[in-house]
Specification:
It is built from nine helices and 18 strands. With about 400 residues, the protein is an alpha/beta fold. The strands form three sheets. Strands 1, 2, 8, 9, 10, 11, 17 and 18 form an eight-stranded mixed sheet that branches. The protein is globular and about 65 Å long.
């Protein structure tokens, strides 16, 4: 799949983080002819946030800044398997975002209209059509939080997260990129206002450009370079059930009940919800959250009460104040590029973020697609409010 070359003492670009964002950046840089690249990771390839994702791909966001970006990433995903010559198991099963109150339906209607204006396929449907699409769902008639409507996003889907990582890694390797797992970055070297390289457990490496693509650890990596990012890290837990015969073929998500569910090709149910209520770097799953996910799932699908949970896991989310990513040049430090702050939606963003980061490094200019996501927005007050477009962003 990829080679194991010896680590050199100098590269044009060093990318910290061999997950989906770091590898996609390396892949698209190599397409532009920059191949003297080292992608470093303290663990195995894709062993961080990429391995702990539920890998839902969608573009039905809320703001004029985010919708075009995720629309482009979604489009890239649709052709990515063919481009990489690798089966990504991308299943475009569609998604329902459920509205249970007048307020939530109002926001869903806004999202539908914004999506349509910006070229994303979304529509608002009623309870009868929801029941037709997901027969086991409880419409909660006469109960708290009845199902009133849903945003249907038919092109949404799920992808095999490992396959995306492996496909990008193999593609980058074929073009000459070096991938070095189990090589931890312990420091970032700089001379004045310019980054000069990184310190690692395998020794120092010089580089013209250093990219931080480390998800939950992004604030720690940036601190090594003297950059203080407005990021806090929360765990996000999910679980999967035992396999069952197929009974639902769309993703169901409820921001009011704080849960989302879909069924895999193997028959398992993948269940996720809101981030934990506390900030920590711990990736231990908890009984408290498992009980919450199970209870919330049964609010929508009560027939699952006897189904067994097979496994549970937690990942780390690097959350910014406005729930939008940070992607661009680090303020006041030449040669240091940020690709972080993805919170709960980093996996679906990877193709567009990798392309944009590669273009930024190659041209030195910020692409229009990411101009609103630069770190300078926290100083000049031009933040992007994307919290309303994700159920997992809610801290309750």
């Amino acid at each position: 799949m990829w080679g194991t070359p010896p680590l050199k003492d100098r590269y044009d670009v060093v990318i910290v983080g061999a997950g989906v964002h770091g590898l996609s950046t390396a892949y698209y840089l190599a397409q532009k002819g920059i191949t003297n690249i080292a992608v470093l990771d303290r663990s195995y390839i894709g062993g961080g946030g990429s391995a702990r994702s539920t890998a839902i791909i969608r573009s039905n966001y809320l703001t004029a800044e985010a919708i075009p970006f995720f629309r482009e990433s979604h489009k890239l995903y649709e052709g990515l398997g063919q481009e990489l010559s690798y089966n990504l198991l991308f299943n475009q099963m569609g998604r329902l975002d459920i509205g249970h109150t007048e307020s939530s339906v109002y926001w869903l209607r806004l999202r539908v209209e914004f999506n349509k204006l910006l070229g994303v396929d979304s529509r608002l449907i009623g309870p009868d059509e929801i029941k037709e699409m997901v027969p086991p769902i409880d419409l909660r008639v006469g109960k708290p939080l009845p199902i009133m409507a849903a945003l249907h996003h038919p092109r949404a889907g799920v992808v095999r997260h490992d396959a995306v990582v492996w496909g990008y890694a193999r593609g980058a390797d074929k073009m000459g990129v070096e991938i070095h797992p189990f090589t931890e970055v312990t420091g970032i070297t700089r001379e004045g206002s310019r980054v000069t390289g990184v310190e690692t457990t395998a020794g120092p490496i010089m580089a013209d450009t250093v990219v931080s693509a480390t998800a939950g650890w992004s604030s720690s990596i940036s601190a090594m370079a003297g950059i203080d990012l407005p990021i806090v890290t929360y765990p996000l837990q999910a679980c999967v059930t035992e396999p069952m015969k197929p009974f639902m073929d769309t993703i169901v998500s409820s921001a009011d009940i704080h849960v989302y569910v879909y069924q895999t090709d193997r028959g398992e149910l993948v269940i996720g919800g809101a981030v934990d209520q506390y900030q920590t770097y711990s990736q231990r799953s908890t009984l408290t959250m498992l009980e919450e996910l199970a209870a919330d799932t049964l609010e929508l699908l009560p027939d699952l009460r006897e189904v067994k949970i097979m496994r549970q896991w937690a990942g780390l989310c690097d959350m910014t104040p406005d729930y939008a990513p940070i992607i661009g040049k680090a303020p006041g430090l030449d040669g240091f590029i940020l690709n972080c702050g993805w919170g709960t939606w980093g996996f679906k963003a990877a193709p567009a973020s990798g392309q944009s980061t590669a273009e930024l490094i190659y041209t030195g200019k910020t692409p229009a697609l990411i101009k609103h996501f630069g770190p300078e927005r926290f100083d000049n007050g031009t933040m992007v409010n994307e919290r309303a477009a994700a159920i997992a962003a809610a801290i309750h």
